[in-house]
Amino acid sequence: MGLSKTIWATPSEYLAKEEPENPVLFFSPATLQATARRFLDGFPGLVTYAVKSNPDEMVIANLVAAGIRGFDVASIFEIDLIRRVAPGAAMHYNNPVRSRGEIAEAVELGVRSFSVDSRSELAKLVELVPAGSEISVRFKLPVAGAAYDFGAKFGATSELATELLAMVAQAGLVPSLTFHPGTQCTDPMAWDAYLRAAAEIAHRADVRIARLNVGGGFPAHRLIDVAPEVETIFDLIDRVTGEAFGEDRPALICEPGRGLVAESFTLATRVRAIRDDAHVFLNDGVYGGLAELPLIGIIDRTEVRDAHGQRRDGAPRGRIVFGPTCDSVDRLPGELALPGDMEEGDFVVFHGMGAYSTATVTRFNGFGVLDIATVMRLTD
Ligand SMILES: *Cc1c(COP(=O)(O)O)cnc(C)c1O
């Protein structure tokens, strides 16, 4: 990934001047810091950032500048990154499966908070982490609401979580609970169900939990007609935690990835060809910055700019859109409504592209070079 030293005013200024052949992600530090402040002001507890959603050092540095003091890390690489870019920040190692070597290295690097969802991994932690460490038992519920099911890979059933929580307390470690309602979770009632289940698990285990981590999953603005209000979710979390736990109310943590970072990046792709006036071929696709679209649905917050950066406003026409590789899977889901006057060489610009874009891009078929440019603001 190339990083330009210049700070541009807007993406369209860059597109007109540079006419880039590679896809470009435009990063607005101002947008990222404003989003971080929204979480810091509104969430009734500690706001941490899930590094995997976008591990760019500029992202981490701007989150620290905005006041983020904790990070959800899942690998030694991410722990090293946070130690370097955000020294002194809290690190929560919330990947419930780790090798013994990884646990030992994390302890060495100062990590004192771990999640767990099984007896075998709890036994490893009890053996290897120092006294005073926090162990958060991760549980799952069969709850709908998110874009895809996070519970398919991680999370103990309520019964097992009750058993694990009691074991953590018995081992003399700091007992906590954690869950993840699933990414892009647009239904606030998912948190309602999880919070009440957490109180029930703590009650049945007869353990007063130190902290409750309510996960990531906070939705980003993907569809024009669905602008999520995270404040509604924050208020619900605050109220339901009080109702469910009463006097045993734990300290709260959240660990958003997408909700913090998505809005601060805009992706500009270029039209390589419009084949016989029908299908559109872009220079980026599902093996690159658009990897998530087939998994969690389309982003319809798009605009088309001509080679001079001017916005096209022809009547929309539904098009099948392909990415650049020779793999037929490399296609955006459904059809995209794109201006009828769109031409080869135009730019198709996707907003809200900061999460799971740079992080998951591949070099498949020789494509996947994404440039990053810093801008003052993302819209004209
Ligand atoms: C990925 C992940 C997150 C972030 O999820 P988002 O949906 O991006 O907010 C938070 N916590 C854990 C444990 C994760 O694995």
From TrEMBL:
The modification N6-(pyridoxal phosphate)lysine is found at K52. One of its GO terms (biological process) is putrescine biosynthetic process from arginine, via ornithine. The active site is at C326. It catalyses: L-ornithine + H(+) = putrescine + CO2. It is an enzyme of class 4 (lyase). Pathway: Amine and polyamine biosynthesis; putrescine biosynthesis via L-ornithine pathway; putrescine from L-ornithine: step 1/1. Residues 33-262 form the Orn/DAP/Arg decarboxylase 2 N-terminal domain. Its EC number is 4.1.1.17. Pfam families: Orn_Arg_deC_N. Keywords: Lyase, Pyridoxal phosphate. Its cofactor is pyridoxal 5'-phosphate. InterPro entries: Ala_racemase/Decarboxylase_C, De-COase2_N, De-COase2_pyr-phos_BS, Orn/DAP/Arg_de-COase, Orn_de-COase, PLP-binding_barrel. GO terms for cellular component: cytoplasm. One of its GO terms (molecular function) is ornithine decarboxylase activity. PANTHER family: ARGININE/DIAMINOPIMELATE/ORNITHINE DECARBOXYLASE, ORNITHINE DECARBOXYLASE 1-RELATED. Belongs to the Orn/Lys/Arg decarboxylase class-II family. This is ornithine decarboxylase. It comes from Mesobaculum littorinae. The lineage of its organism: Bacteria, Pseudomonadati, Pseudomonadota, Alphaproteobacteria, Rhodobacterales.
